[in-house]
Amino acid sequence: MIPPRLAPFVVALIVSGIMSFLVSGIATVRALGPVDGFLGTWMSAWVIAWAVAFPTMAVFRPIVERQVRRRLAAPPAER
Questions:
Q1: Residue 32 domain-assigned?
Q2: How many domains is the chain partitioned into structurally?
Q3: Cβ 53 vs Cβ 20: under 8 Å
Q4: Which of 6, 13, 20, 40 could bridge 50 with an S-S bond, Cβ 3.0-4.6 Å?
């Protein structure tokens, strides 16, 4: 089991992996089209993208969450 204190990093790892996988795939196919060696090129791009995306998400996610919480309207008082 994963200790609860590591949950934010595990979430950042998974979400950044999925997002970088999809975005790098779209960018690679748009740049190269369906060429020989596409999959290898995409995977190389993905590894680099994930290496940037994970630490970026790990650092900025808590900052963004705090900013969003500050800007949310307070829930209406119960009657």
A1: yes
A2: 1
A3: yes
A4: 20
